[in-house]
Design brief:
2 copies of one chain form a homodimer. By secondary structure, chain A is an alpha/beta fold. The first copy, chain A, has an 8-stranded mixed sheet with strand order 2-9-8-7-6-3-4-5, sandwiched between helices. The radius of gyration of chain A is 22 Å and the shape is globular. Chains A and B meet through α1, α3, α4, α6 and α7 of A and α1, α3, α4, α6 and α7 of B.
Chain lengths: 412, 412
């Protein structure tokens, strides 16, 4: 039997939502954006020196020697507890009062988003996201066959007034209200903007009025270089409607795949039940030992210094080089700048020219639930060196100029 | 607002299947079976010396030093490929021809079962399992709101004739046919029995006739001490109906949480899409390095020697000590012996006496989709030392004797 005959036979057996969503665009197309000679502003990766290889290696050694028998066993010993306590303490230091029973550990933040989605979403539910929003979350939400509504942001984050107006209109028209709002309030991926404190209060009121959950995904909040930190939405929550997702991916390293959820115990209980038991106790042990061994806060200060330098260089280079008509966000932290090209420029079409000039980036379309974003782009300043970032922005400016005056360019 | 008011408010928002299944018995009740002074035959854990702490530590060091920049990054470097190639080679050596595109990596076998369940199961689907069956799989299947039908085993594994007869009867009566059969064909958890070769052929025919998938979960197949190895069901599959699940949990260590699926590319593609991106690249790198550094086959021979000693001691002690009326399986490999107590003995009721006498085990009821198994028990010989196992079985025999003649016991 040929492989294609076979898959027709099996196709009937897929779950309804899998069958209904299986022919969508393949996720990960962005991974094909590679130009080895070009400066990559594509990935939201930490810069290599940000990664504590040696200290993590030491932590694994300690776990494998000290916790000997439990280290490679199924259940782990005391370390699942140890890491949960670390999470509880870190949360408290950010104003989020929680107990160990209100923490659910996951294999990174993306896994946390997926577990929350699986626990709460039925096909044809409506959910609300920022437009643009984190592409990894959009991808997961799509798998659940839900209707995704997008709401615009400005320099103070999600436009909560517009969101409120739409909720009221939906209620009046007897249209479905969202079951949850997914938001990255701090240094949003991809725009870099931060939700203002008053809008956080307002969101909580809306969640109560319209009976939805707020999923607060906050991987970047501790990486602030300027300005003052608004309180995490979860810290303001006295209704149990906020499900907070956090991760060590940016404060320690992505490769350790350790994230968590903070939510009411009744929610955490279901997350624990739904989640599949793939908890990596060895890694959790090593992360716990790492947190004991290092000065975590000093480490974050160092990371902030590294990212700040990169952001400054990117913003300076944009100021200096980009042609009139382009605009961009000015994030006070995090990994990303959001760029709007001058009218008439399509970011995806620009990409080959840009790569030729020496830079790659992610076209804005990747970050929308619909087909918006064609003249926008996410520029990541997290990975390249400051000099490379300056070169990359110069290359981007050259490519933009060429695209603005194609005749002139073809005369070269 | 009190926490209980809150959870009422949020309860409405859970997904339908979560709400419908949330009041079931809490999974993990078995974790409470602890009696520190007693010999534990409860857990399917490898014995401590089976765990290669030092070699795993070395492997992490190599990855963190050699693969420097990629080791703690999101995407990993070449090691995701390296470990996939290891899996392809190991599969081929067991007669399973597959390509890298037919392998899907997971965080252990349980995570693989869950991903398969999420990809194929809709609420109210019917699935078939062995009765008894692996409790971790039953627990996950229950989360999907499916109807679970159980089919008995004998010393040659699943009673395929009875299964076939029921399928025919269901078809004739226009009753739902199963979408999948979940089976542990080698040294089944919990019974220790192995599905005979001819029954494997017959199962494949049934899958084709009645249009269902076979989920072959094979964590123990390489741990054979006697007898000859029947071919993995996947190696006989030319229809693409077999989804094979395997793991390094027993051949390396549970703590590395590395399992995989082998299935047709069309299925793997959907598993990759549905799976949440919690792939632990650092661990995968270490496992790949470990497999390069050690003699894997020699390691399995050593493990078999260790487990064989334990099984032999358990079977000898059962022969010597258990009262008439008790019977048990005689596995040729794996981790488990399945015990049937003399008539009238309830395993769960026996547990406190047994613990007092010096042994704990898992009551049979944990392994059934319905309320069967009350006078059965799973005895794990994987974890305790041979001497402890002998002591444990002696304690079990004393407890059984007491339960058989309660008056005499109370006269003591």
């Amino acid at each position: 039997m040929s492989e294609s005959d076979r898959s027709d036979g099996v196709k009937r057996l897929f779950a309804d939502t899998v069958r209904e969503t299986m022919d969508g665009a393949a996720y990960g197309a962005w991974r094909t954006i590679t130009a080895p000679e070009a400066v990559s502003l594509v990935f939201g990766f930490p810069y290599p020196d940000a990664l504590p290889n040696e200290a993590i290696g030491d932590a694994f050694d300690v776990v494998l020697e000290t916790d000997h028998e439990d280290a490679l066993q199924y259940a782990g010993g005391d370390y699942a507890d140890a890491i949960t306590n670390t999470v509880v303490e870190q949360s408290r230091s950010r104003g989020i009062e929680c107990t160990a029973e209100e923490v659910h550990l996951t294999n990174g933040a993306t896994h946390a988003i997926d577990t929350v989605a699986q626990t709460f979403l039925d096909p044809d539910d409506t959910i609300a996201v920022e437009a643009p929003s984190f592409m990894g979350a959009l991808r997961l939400f799509r798998n659940y066959g839900v209707d995704i509504e997008g709401y615009e942001l400005d320099e103070n984050g999600l436009d909560v007034d517009a969101f409120a107006a739409d909720l009221a209109a939906r209620e009046a028209a007897d249209e479905p209200l969202p079951k949850l709002l997914y938001t990255v309030p701090d240094f949003q991926n991809p725009t870099g903007v931060t939700l203002s404190a008053d809008r956080r209060d307002r969101l909580l009121e809306l969640a109560e009025t319209y009976d939805f959950l707020i999923v607060e995904d906050d991987p970047y909040g501790q990486l602030r270089f300027d300005g003052s930190t608004p309180p995490p939405i979860k810290s303001l929550d006295d209704t149990g409607r906020v499900i907070r997702i956090d991760t060590f991916s940016k404060t320690i390293a992505p490769g350790i795949r350790t994230g968590w959820v903070v939510a009411d115990e009744a929610i955490v209980r279901e997350l624990e039940r739904i989640n599949a038991g793939g908890e990596n106790v060895l890694t959790l042990g090593a992360v716990a030992r790492y947190c004991e061994a290092v000065d975590f806060e000093a480490g974050i200060d160092e990371l902030c210094a590294g990212y700040r330098k990169r952001r400054d260089r990117m913003l300076d280079a944009l100021d200096e080089r980009m042609p009139p008509g382009a605009s961009w966000s000015e994030p006070e932290g995090g990994f990303f700048v959001w760029l709007e090209f001058p009218d008439g420029i399509d970011a995806e079409e620009l990409l080959p020219t840009a790569a030729e000039e020496g830079v790659t980036f992610l076209p804005g379309t990747y970050f929308y639930h619909d087909d918006a974003g064609s003249n926008q782009a996410r520029l990541s300043f997290s990975y390249a060196t400051p000099d490379e970032i300056e070169d990359g922005i110069a290359a981007l400016a050259r490519a933009t100029h060429k695209a603005m005056s194609p005749v002139e360019a073809s005369d070269d």
